[in-house]
Amino acid sequence: MKIYNRAQIEQVTKLDLNALQAVEAGFSALGQGKVTMPPILSMAIEESNGEVDVKTAHIRGNERFAIKISPGFFDNPKLGLPSLNGLMVLFSAKTGLVDSVLFDEGYLTDIRTALAGAISAKHLANPDAATISVLGCGLQAELQVAAIALVRPIQHVNVWARDASKAVDYQQRMQQRYGLSVTIHANIQQACRDAEVIVTTTPSKEPLLNWQDIPRGAHVIAMGSDSPHKRELTSSVILNADHLIVDRLSQSQSLGELRCVEKPLTRPVLELGDIVCGKVRYQRQVDDISVCDLTGTGVQDTAIANYTAQQLSN
């Protein structure tokens, strides 16, 4: 058994096209029916404002499968500690013996989450999308933009956040690290007015994005709602979208944005993996509005963990 720490993992797995291809291959396998993926195990630690999720999946033919343990304790910043942590354990798919332990402290989850947004943009957004609007200004607000810039010609970022000082920090960070121009907006309507891609990256418990906020032709990536108490989109966004895509239908219905829709859907809901592998044909007109709900899947974890293990063994 091999044990790796975060510093070692960061050396070999980065937010780049190689890692994107690994996660994309995981989605493709999911669409082809080559993945065994049980429901997420989730447990609340209410007295500490915490939760822990356990995710896993096996991709048929892969040498290893991963089990990820991901705690989130959201009062930790008051103690000078990170909110998110965790590790991934890789097992041999032939013997079940532990192959390696990746003490990534949540790093790989951050990377694979951002790459899922990029895969969504690659397959679903207009090819020339250059303006992105972000709701929230945390780590995923940064990484989602950086990842999407791998597959779309992103030039300008519009951002809205509840905390004005954090929005300024975000603006400076994105300009310095990625050379992107960033405009801070006082409200969501202004932030989304010219958007070609909209990414919601908040832990909101109440819907933030309304249908009237979304311009024609935009692609919406909702990645903040990944538990029953979170929600970022109003029902009108789900009900009116020209295209509705999820990473996993059962998860979106239980944990994501589909959970809160009061009326029956009149459009089919597609899974991202089905589009990635070509099982389902996706065609959008330039003015269509598409919405993709990403709740985070075990196949992403196994895909990024396998990729990391391979890089570490080279």
From TrEMBL:
InterPro entries according to UniProt: NAD(P)-bd_dom_sf (IPR036291), ODC_Mu_crystall (IPR003462), ODC_N (IPR023401)
A matching Pfam family: OCD_Mu_crystall
The protein, known as: Ethanolamine utilization protein EutC
Organism: Vibrio hepatarius
GO cellular component: cytoplasm
Domain of life the protein comes from: Bacteria
